[in-house]
Amino acid sequence: HVQLVESGGGTVQAGGSLKLSCVGSGFTYNTHNMGWFRSAPGKEREGVAVIGSDGGIMYADSVKGRFTISRDNAKNTLTLQMDSLRPEDTAMYYCAAGLFGALGYTWSRGDRYSRWGQGTQVTVS
Fold first, then answer.
1. In the chain, is it the N or the C terminus that has fewer CB atoms within a 10 Å radius of its CB?
2. Percent helix / strand / coil, the chain, rounded to 5
3. Strands 67-72 vs 57-59: parallel, antiparallel or unpaired
4. Which three-class secondary structure string do you get for 47-79?
């Protein structure tokens, strides 16, 4: 049974930090590219960051320099450290897993990912 379970969301003041985690099970975690996406009311879903099975990393321009993605293959865990949070970062955050090889410019397309978590809410006031 494939599962991705996110945790770590909450409410924080602007300028604060949060750390999101996502634990995967039921699939070969270390062969997958792992991404974070976010969805806010009235906005399109946005790819936030991805870390490839080879360790390569890409970020959306909106979070570069503020967010850090990492993975621990021994623990099947994906992490997103979010610093200097802004109100516009408010969204439901999802982790996703995909088997699409090299990251490339399509890394932020949701259809590249076949497995999704249920999401964790982040609110920045």
1. N
2. 5, 45, 45
3. unpaired
4. EEEEECCCCCEEECCCCCCCEEEEEECCCCEEE
